[in-house]
């Protein structure tokens, strides 16, 4: 018999014994363990014994002890010095009955929970315990006496046990000592029995401080000395609060059982609060994972204290929780906003209940109508307060259930149709009902609002990429904080269904996900194309998504809320194990999360916020790398529609109406005809003959030019959204293309799409080829039409439509001129908006936009220096070239060969003085190509290659060019990399302690939409256009410079090659940590001398 078989046999024997004599040999630890607090051995027999509340840390999760009959465990603690003497008694053991069985070693289990360096706190002999009892007569409390308390009611509503006239003293211990550390450990060994998941504190950490409550009485010796018994304690940790405050957090608080239900708990907490309130550096007081009993005690004390503040007077409670209440509670009582809101709701509820009982139910008013009206008013206010309390309680309950994974909720079954028919069928199919739009709610019809989910105050943190969000998570893991975190990502990142993820495009992924969730696909209903000919075509199967299961989704959501899953990859991996959808688990967890990480496009775009359920009201929004937030918003709200899209969309709508016109409801038919008229106007305008290659129209001018003044674009967009038209038309679009494939011959009965496909060889229009695989994944043109119609819903003065005509490829392009208006929507909705970044300067344009939006008084600016020392960075504004003449590089001189030659010569002389690596940034790929050609022409490149290896960034994917450059830069001679500011390398590279040179050239970007934005800003504020140009240029430059220094020990040299960098208005647009290290040499030789001086003594790679 091997070891595993023997262990299995032993377990089977144990199970048999448990089944036959469970009452004899299996005991619940909570039933047999008792704890006594002894002051003297003579009185030990009269001391009351108390049952513990938890035993799982000693005897396992089931809290059972195996192998004893009639077991009794008494833990005797000295009531002051807290030494332990355990007594174990029993009548029989299982080993006496079954020789192969063995009982649990109770004493060993108790010892296992004692720190290894404090094993002497427990004695196993009664004589040793007698000695400890005699010694504790000389026990003196540690720390500073801060208050004397008398037992009694903290408030009249507390029911107290009779304790006579006992007195208590509260001591504060802020500094550690070996004697106190040992004493604290002995006390905390008791906490394992009364505080769930209690742990020993790290006594070596100076940020811990403690409060100890002792019963004080006259000593029996009669010499006037005092004897003490421990009554309770509280342990707190000082967390840092920016900039120079602390936030104490209560980690443990406990009253010993003999002193409970005497009003001491409220008094202890109240005195602790008052002591903390006296410290100016304390911001507020919080608690770590508070138990329900402590929450009740804290709310009770907070209610009593807040009732003494004038801001919480009864007359002020009717107006709800106000900012004055929050400020008063924080400044005077150090109570957080959440705790103060609980107090307000509870006091309001008590007041209304009292008002209801006293002024309504006991009213004998003869005017029964007035009395009844007053009663209804009070009942309404009382019910609202009650609902508020219920929401708070539900949030706490839901989070508690998520932590323990035991949430139970009602299952709501969705009614389904009898048949799983297709949403769109071909014309010869019998079932076509699901191709029709859902019944549309007209203007005077009101939809019933669903019940709002539970919500908590949260922080939204938005950044450009998911990799940056992952970096933030890594840093959070290094702290003590453990907020509930959710990362809002798309289906492309979170989806684990291979049937969905194999699709390349987001719109196809979303559509396939919806199909599988609805389970509407029926095998054989759709015409299947040959996979080899059409590999990207959507194919439906009869299966539903195996990951879309409510139980698994909820279980995964619970783990996310409990804090066990934070990173996106952790969520995805766990979702595969649970067979759950991480995308919908994330959305389910979002309302109760405290920190939501999300990319820019989710939070800055109104439609995306609505789709994700992002509610900024009352919450904090942080925008990382916010230097380009206005440009990002402008790109998110831009839209364009091509002549190809309009032609295709018009054909789709006409064919759809021809198929389903008789089945559409009147209101749906009305909006479909209006949509067709709009698309027809678009198509006609783009295809009409015109000598104008480009035109710019205002929104109102565009509508007039197309003859659409009587069309309400808002209603059309709302109709398309409410009926899910774009997705359904995409299905119709795919089927129409299929129909064209199955019947390639031209006939009179062809559909509009089929005619369009047949005519593509004879008519030179940009249409979609059925044979092209990309056409199978091409989105429905209704998507682009809808996006453009949404863009037309902007304010007329905030946008322009650019009409571009290049042969047969014509298009409308909407440009948002005033992204600040969209930013203000976000700023005004959020409780606070924080714009952060390492290179926020120049921020003048952003501040001006916010000021014009009405939040000028609410803007606060803060900047700090870099982590490096001054000697680790030197920036030189080089205003003179190698021939010692003034150096000015403008857009007009960029094609001057002599100017480019001077730049090359200057660069070569600088490279000679720099060890290791150099990075030269240009304003564009074209100018960089022109520069490289000049190097080749004048044989300068050969000189450069003799000194350093040369790398050049390409327009496409940079591949491993950065890794190869870094490897080459580590040698003594080093390497030089030519790159583009604002390109991939300037955004993604990361200097790892080597030396780099950054050469910047300023060039304004001349594009039509930039000129439109400039003209718009000039019309709003004098000089606004020039400010925009400078901001665009300097943001790119500052972003590139910021890549030079990434870590504490990095050092770098930065060259700004242009005389304009020496102007004060340009220097002011550099970040402060760069501008204060900027020098302006009077000549080029001076720049070379400063370079040599900087690198002297610096570490170089051998």
From TrEMBL:
Coiled coil (UniProt feature): 342-402
GO biological process: chromatin organization; establishment of sister chromatid cohesion; nucleobase-containing compound metabolic process
Cofactor annotation: [4Fe-4S] cluster
Subcellular location, principal: nucleus
Family: Belongs to the DEAD box helicase family. DEAH subfamily. DDX11/CHL1 sub-subfamily.
Location within or outside the cell: Nucleus
UniProt keyword list: ATP-binding, Coiled coil, Helicase, Hydrolase, Iron, Iron-sulfur, Isomerase, Metal-binding, Nucleotide-binding, Nucleus
Helicase ATP-binding domain ranges (all copies): 371-676
The protein, known as: Histone acetyltransferase type B catalytic subunit
Species in which this protein is naturally found: Trichostrongylus colubriformis
Gene Ontology annotations for the cellular component aspect, listed alphabetically: nucleus
GO MF entry, a single one: histone binding
SMART domains, A to Z: DEXDc2 (SM00488), HELICc2 (SM00491)
């Amino acid at each position: 018999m091997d070891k595993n078989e023997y262990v299995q046999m032993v377990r089977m024997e144990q199970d048999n014994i448990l089944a036959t004599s469970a009452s004899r040999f299996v005991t619940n630890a909570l039933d047999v363990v008792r704890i006594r607090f002894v002051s003297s051995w003579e009185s030990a027999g009269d001391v009351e014994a108390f049952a513990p509340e938890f035993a799982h840390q000693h005897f396992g999760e089931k809290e059972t002890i195996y192998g004893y009959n009639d077991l009794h465990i008494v833990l005797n603690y000295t009531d002051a010095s807290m030494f332990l003497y355990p007594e174990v008694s029993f009548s029989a053991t299982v080993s006496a009955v079954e020789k192969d069985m063995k009982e649990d070693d109770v004493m060993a289990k108790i010892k296992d929970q004692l720190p290894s360096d404090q094993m002497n706190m427990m004695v196993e002999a009664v004589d040793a315990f007698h000695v400890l009892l005699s010694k504790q007569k000389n026990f003196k409390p540690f720390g500073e006496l801060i208050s004397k308390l008398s037992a009694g009611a903290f408030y009249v509503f507390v029911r107290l046990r009779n304790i006579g006239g006992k007195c208590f003293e509260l001591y504060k211990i802020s500094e550690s000592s070996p004697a106190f550390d040992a004493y604290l450990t002995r006390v905390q060994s008791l906490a394992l029995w009364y505080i769930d998941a209690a742990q020993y504190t790290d006594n070596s950490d100076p940020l811990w401080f403690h409060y100890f409550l002792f019963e004080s009485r006259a000593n029996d010796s009669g010499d006037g000395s005092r004897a003490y018994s421990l009554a309770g304690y509280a342990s707190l940790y000082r967390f840092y609060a920016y900039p120079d405050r602390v936030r104490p957090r209560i980690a443990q608080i406990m009253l010993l059982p003999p002193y409970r239900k005497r009003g001491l708990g409220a008094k202890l907490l109240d005195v602790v609060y008052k002591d903390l309130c006296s410290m100016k550096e304390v911001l507020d007081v919080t608690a770590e994972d508070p138990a329900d009993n402590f929450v009740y005690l804290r709310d009770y004390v907070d209610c009593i204290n807040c009732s003494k503040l004038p801001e919480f007077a009864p007359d002020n409670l009717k107006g709800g929780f106000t900012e004055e209440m929050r400020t008063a509670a924080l400044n005077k009582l150090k109570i957080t906003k959440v705790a103060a809101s609980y107090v307000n709701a509870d006091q309001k509820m008590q007041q209304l209940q009292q008002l209801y009982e006293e002024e309504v139910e006991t009213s004998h008013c003869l005017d029964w109508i007035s009395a009844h009206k007053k009663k209804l008013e009070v009942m309404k206010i009382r019910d609202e307060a009650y609902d508020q309390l219920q929401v708070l309680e539900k949030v706490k309950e839901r989070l508690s259930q998520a932590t323990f994974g035991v949430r139970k909720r009602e299952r709501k079954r969705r009614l389904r149709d009898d048949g799983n028919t297709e949403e769109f069928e071909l014309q010869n199919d019998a079932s076509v009902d699901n191709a029709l739009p859902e019944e549309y709610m007209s203007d005077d019809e009101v939809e019933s609002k669903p019940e709002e989910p539970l919500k908590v105050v949260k922080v939204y943190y938005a950044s450009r990429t998911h990799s940056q969000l992952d970096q933030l998570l890594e840093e959070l893991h290094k702290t003590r904080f453990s907020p509930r975190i959710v990362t809002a990502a798309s289906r492309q990142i979170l989806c684990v269904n291979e049937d969905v993820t194999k699709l390349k495009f987001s719109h196809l992924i979303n559509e396939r996900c919806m199909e599988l969730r609805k389970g509407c696909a029926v095998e054989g209903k759709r015409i299947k194309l040959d996979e080899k000919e059409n590999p990207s075509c959507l194919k439906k199967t009869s299966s539903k998504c195996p990951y879309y299961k409510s139980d698994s989704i909820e279980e995964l959501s619970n783990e996310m809320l409990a804090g066990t899953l934070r990173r996106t990859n952790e969520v995805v991996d766990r979702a595969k194990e649970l067979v759950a959808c991480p995308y919908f688990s994330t959305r389910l967890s979002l309302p109760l999360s405290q920190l939501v990480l999300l990319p820019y496009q989710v939070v800055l775009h109104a439609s995306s916020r609505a789709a994700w359920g992002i509610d900024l009201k009352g919450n904090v929004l942080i925008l990382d790398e916010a230097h380009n937030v206005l440009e990002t918003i402008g790109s998110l709200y831009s839209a364009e529609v091509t002549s190809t899209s309009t032609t295709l969309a018009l054909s789709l709508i006409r064919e759809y109406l021809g198929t389903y016109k008789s089945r559409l409801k009147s209101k749906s038919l009305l909006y479909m005809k209006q949509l067709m008229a709009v698309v027809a106007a678009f198509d006609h305008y783009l295809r009409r003959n015109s000598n104008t290659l480009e035109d710019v129209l205002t929104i109102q001018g565009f509508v007039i030019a197309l003859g659409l003044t009587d069309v309400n674009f808002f209603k059309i967009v709302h109709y398309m959204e409410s009926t899910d038209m774009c997705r359904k038309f995409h299905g119709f679009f795919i089927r129409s293309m299929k129909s064209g494939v199955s019947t390639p011959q031209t006939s009179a009965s062809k559909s509009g799409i089929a005619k369009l496909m047949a005519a593509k060889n004879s008519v030179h229009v940009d249409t979609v080829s059925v044979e092209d695989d990309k056409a199978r994944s091409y989105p429905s043109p209704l998507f682009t039409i809808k996006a453009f119609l949404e863009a037309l819903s902007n304010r007329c003065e905030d946008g322009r439509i650019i009409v571009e005509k290049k042969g047969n490829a014509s298009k409308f392009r909407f440009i948002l001129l005033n992204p600040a208006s969209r930013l203000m929507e976000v700023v005004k909705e959020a409780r606070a908006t924080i714009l952060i970044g390492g290179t926020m300067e120049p921020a003048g344009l952003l501040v001006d936009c916010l000021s014009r939006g009405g939040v000028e008084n609410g803007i606060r600016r803060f900047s700090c220096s870099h982590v490096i020392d001054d000697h680790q960075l030197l920036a030189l504004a080089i205003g003179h070239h190698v021939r010692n003449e003034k150096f000015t590089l403008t857009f007009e001189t960029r094609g001057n060969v002599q100017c480019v030659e001077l730049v090359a010569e200057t660069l070569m002389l600088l490279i000679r003085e720099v060890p290791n690596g150099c990075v030269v940034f240009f304003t564009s790929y074209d100018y960089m190509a022109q520069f490289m050609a000049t190097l080749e022409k004048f044989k300068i490149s050969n000189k450069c290659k003799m000194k350093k290896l040369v790398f050049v960034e390409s327009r496409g994917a940079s591949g491993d060019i950065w890794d190869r450059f870094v490897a080459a830069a580590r040698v003594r001679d080093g390497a030089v990399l030519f790159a583009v500011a604002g390109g991939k390398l300037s955004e993604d590279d990361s200097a790892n302690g080597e030396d780099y040179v950054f050469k910047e050239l300023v060039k304004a970007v001349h594009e039509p939409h930039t000129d439109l934005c400039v003209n718009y800003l000039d019309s709003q504020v004098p000089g606004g256009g020039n400010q925009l140009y400078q901001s665009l240029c300097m943001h790119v430059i500052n972003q590139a410079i910021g890549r030079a220094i990434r870590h504490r020990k990095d050092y770098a040299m930065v060259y700004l090659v242009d005389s304009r960098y020496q102007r004060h208005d340009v220097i002011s647009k550099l970040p402060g940590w760069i501008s204060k290290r900027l020098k302006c040499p009077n000549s080029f030789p001076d720049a070379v001398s400063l370079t040599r001086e900087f690198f002297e003594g610096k570490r170089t790679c051998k």
